[in-house]
Amino acid sequence: MEFKKKNISELLSLLREWIPITAEFEKALYRCMELQLVRAKKELTILSKDIHYAWFSVDCWIAEYRTLASGKEEVYTIYGPKQIFTDINSFLTETASNHKFMIISGERLLSIERSNFQYLRKFSETALLLEHYMLQQWELDRWHSELMTYSDYEKVSHFAKKYPINDLPAKVSSSFLRMTPSRFSGARLLFNKNK
C-alpha cells in the first residue's frame, strides 16, 4: 500500500508538469491505478488481442515490439522509468493490436484498466492528458523517423542522448535503430571510445 501511494505520487508529479490537476482527479486516479510487479523478459501483452491496460513505468525499461506485414517483429519504441505507455489505438478503440510490450529490466509498474480509464473520462483533465500523451507519441515518432536518416555512428550518438546505451540489450537497441547487431556493436564501440 505504501509503495502504491509513493508511486502514484510520482505519476501525479509527472502529470502536473503537463496540466493542472484537481484534488478530485487525484483521488479518482488513486482508486483507479494498480501496482503491478513484473520481472525482466515478462511479456505484458499478447499480439492480436486488444490492449486492456495503460501503464506508468516506476522503474522499468520496456521494449515495444510491432509485427510487420512480413511477420517480422521489430522494436518500435523503448520506454523508461517515469514514462506512460500503451498501444493507444487498441486501448481506446478495443481493437486488436500488432504491438507487444516486453520488460527489459525493473520490477514495478502502475497500471490502469480500460474500464477505469473510461470512468476518469468524466474529468476534464483526462482529455487534456490524453491530448498531451498523443502529442508526445507523435514527437517520439518524428524523432525516430529523423534518426533513420543518419549514419550508423550518428544514430548511436543521438540514441545515447535519450537512452542508457550500454545498459540496454544490444538486440533491442539495434532493432530500434534498424541496424544489424554487428553494425550496432561497432558503432557503439566507436561511440564509447569517443566519449
Largest beta sheet: strand ordering: 1-7-2-5
Helix content: 40-55%
Q: Distance between termini?
A: 43 Å
Q: Which stretches are low in confidence, meaning pLDDT under 50 for 5 or more residues running?
A: none
Q: What is the H-and-E element order? A: HHEEEEEHEEHHHHH
Please write out the topology:
Layout: H1 2-18, H2 23-32, E1 33-37, E2 53-57, E3 61-67, E4 73-79, E5 84-85, H3 88-93, E6 99-105, E7 108-113, H4 114-120, H5 124-147, H6 152-162, H7 170-176, H8 181-194
Antiparallel strand pairs: 1-7, 2-5, 2-7, 3-4, 3-6
Helix pairs in contact: 6-8, 7-8
Question: What are the defining features of this structure?
Answer:
4-stranded antiparallel β-sheet, 3-stranded antiparallel β-sheet, 7 strands, 195 residues, alpha+beta, globular
Description:
With 195 residues, the protein is α+β, with helices and mostly antiparallel strands. The protein has helices spanning 2-18, 23-32, 88-93, 114-120, 124-147, 152-162, 170-176, 181-194, and strands spanning 33-37, 53-57, 61-67, 73-79, 84-85, 99-105, 108-113. A four-stranded antiparallel β-sheet has the order 1-7-2-5. Strands 4-3-6 form a three-stranded antiparallel β-sheet. Strand 3 and strand 4 (73-79) form a beta hairpin. The mean pLDDT is 93.
Give a brief description.
The protein contains eight helices and seven strands, in the order H-H-E-E-E-E-E-H-E-E-H-H-H-H-H.
